[in-house]
């Protein structure tokens, strides 16, 4: 049995958050992690050196002291404790047979330099390293599963479908649009700046894109890009946008509810008033979480790596440098400051 | 060629309706119907003597001069013209090979004593007459298809599911609850009077029922009857009820949107605020209309007639007598005055 004490910088939640999160809601703590890996014991553990942290909108819920709409899928962070989220790490010590020193893994880790994982079967081994390791916090990680499963398993897409994606340049949206293009769909995305709109049109291959902040009348914008209506809406924002899009759906349209980032920082969610159109147009609206779709991961990896190598798929990341800059990166996604998938690099291999 | 002039009393829409419909929105007109049935010509027609009219909530939309949320499934009535709706009739003359004098049919007819149908393939022949003919305006007509398809094809029910039905004693709701009981589900319905609640519990076999008007806190009522949550919500009312029910759904629950009668007479529909729960609970919400499910009609008829004969299914009707009382019956359904499926008998065979 070895006894270790490792100096470990950590990002902690100073207190529960109301409204938009601020950098001051988080703190940087110089701590020491005591870890004991008992080789040969029945309990297995893995000690990780963390490399990349993923900044994801769902983390906002965990910053509240009670998560509204009772659900079992996410729990509040503990105030005063280290944040937890998806990330990419290197195994530096292991008593778990499936992982050995030097392996790379992705999964739920602490926002800290080192994490001791006592339930290592929750980690995913990274077998292919000819792509940036950070991709395992994005296209080849949770956001990739959300995009792939949400589009292919929830939306029933077919060639020629008219697809609308909101928050389209984000970690999930940019993939949904590209998956849709690869299927021969007509794809339009919306985002919050000209830079992102340009990315969508010129780098990610969307047919059209628009800056929703410049549209005084969202309905006109949707009519302009979808004169015949929308077959598939991949919703990352919720609220008023969702309400308006319903009016522009085609008969038998499908709406995948992936996230509602426009609603996370407001006290009372906006009401969706156009529900009756769901009946008249026989629309299917389905909420989903990527946790239910772990089984699609192998096909996602195979497909994405093939397309990445062939240059048919791109993935745009916004990489902040240094653990001390992680709170600012996380806060930034709620203001749309990130251009592409927001990750934080806290160490090179 | 015969030329006929038939005295024909008709119910007309006096003017388009705002808010709740009133009896004065409708008029009784003594008219004469001129009909010419050309035997041997290429065009076929059927002259019907109308027996039963069905009063259905969706008709409210047709009373408005513009139907909000552009859709192709229903059109506005023509102001000053005769109302149209589902009904049961007897063929008194026919140049259409499939129907002969004396046949009974159901389908879209005028709110009048006699209707000349020039597109007779839209009518359904009634082959089984050992049940009240009025059933073809209810359990064996459109409401039956809505209940059967909506429950079995939209909700994916399975034995033991916890099922909630709103507007549960109406023409559709009472069937949904009984179909669910026949599958071995736990079924709770809500209605607007004690009389209806008693019917649900003691005649229609619901496990539980409650008067939503007597519940100050809908959430408490739902928690009382569904301590573990709801698997299936069959929504006939929309609005605030739908918003509240979402909070009480189980993970992977299903919501069939059949109608939203609470919203039809108000200017701006109530907002549904709890949409984010659809994601956290991975809920599928699907709008449907019975028009898409004509193909289930044969199995519906076979099943219902069998269960009716075996006494395993009941169908409660509220039958108004006389065409002149049709407007009052129609208006009444928007105030919940009907007890059971509202039909109007305008003639015996």
UniProtKB/TrEMBL annotation, chains A, B:
Record has Oxidoreductase as a keyword: yes
Domain Oxidoreductase N-terminal: 9-122
Alcohol dehydrogenase-like C-terminal domain: residues covered: 171-303
Record flagged with keyword Oxidoreductase: yes
Keywords, alphabetical: Oxidoreductase
GO MF term list: 2-alkenal reductase [NAD(P)H] activity
Pfam family, one: ADH_zinc_N
Protein name per UniProt: Enoyl reductase (ER) domain-containing protein
Species of origin: Prunus persica (Peach)
């Amino acid at each position: 049995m070895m006894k270790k004490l490792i100096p470990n910088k950590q990002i902690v939640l100073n207190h529960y958050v109301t409204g938009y999160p601020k950098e001051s809601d988080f703190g940087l703590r110089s701590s020491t992690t005591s870890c004991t890996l008992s080789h040969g014991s029945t309990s297995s553990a893995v000690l990780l050196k963390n490399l990349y942290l993923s900044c994801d909108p769902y983390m906002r819920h965990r910053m509240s002291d009670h998560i509204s709409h009772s659900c079992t899928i996410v729990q509040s962070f503990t105030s005063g404790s280290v944040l937890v989220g998806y990330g990419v790490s290197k195994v530096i010590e292991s008593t778990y047979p499936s992982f050995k020193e030097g392996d790379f893994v992705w999964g739920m880790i602490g926002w800290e330099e080192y994490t001791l994982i006592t339930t290592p079967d929750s980690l995913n081994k990274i077998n292919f390293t000819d792509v940036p390791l950070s991709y395992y916090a994005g296209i080849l990680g949770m956001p990739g599963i959300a995009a792939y499963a949400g589009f292919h398993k929830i939306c029933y897409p077919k060639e020629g479908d008219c697809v609308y994606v909101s928050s389209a340049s984000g970690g999930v949206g940019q993939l949904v649009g590209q998956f849709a293009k690869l299927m021969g769909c007509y794809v339009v995305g919306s985002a919050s700046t000209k830079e992102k709109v340009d990315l969508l049109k010129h780098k990610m291959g969307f047919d059209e894109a628009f800056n929703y902040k410049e549209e005084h009348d969202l309905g006109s914008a949707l009519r302009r890009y979808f004169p015949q209506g929308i077959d598939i809406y991949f919703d990352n924002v919720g609220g008023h946008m969702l309400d308006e899009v319903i009016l522009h759906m085609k008969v038998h349209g499908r709406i995948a509810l992936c996230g509602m980032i426009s609603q996370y920082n407001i006290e009372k969610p906006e009401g969706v008033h156009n529900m009756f159109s769901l009946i008249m147009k026989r629309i299917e609206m389905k909420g989903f979480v990527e946790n239910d779709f772990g089984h699609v991961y192998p096909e996602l990896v195979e497909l994405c790596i093939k397309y990445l190598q062939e240059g048919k798929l791109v993935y745009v990341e916004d990489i902040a440098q240094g653990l001390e800059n992680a709170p600012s990166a996380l806060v930034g996604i709620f203001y749309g400051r990130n251009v592409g998938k927001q990750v934080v690099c806290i160490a090179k291999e």
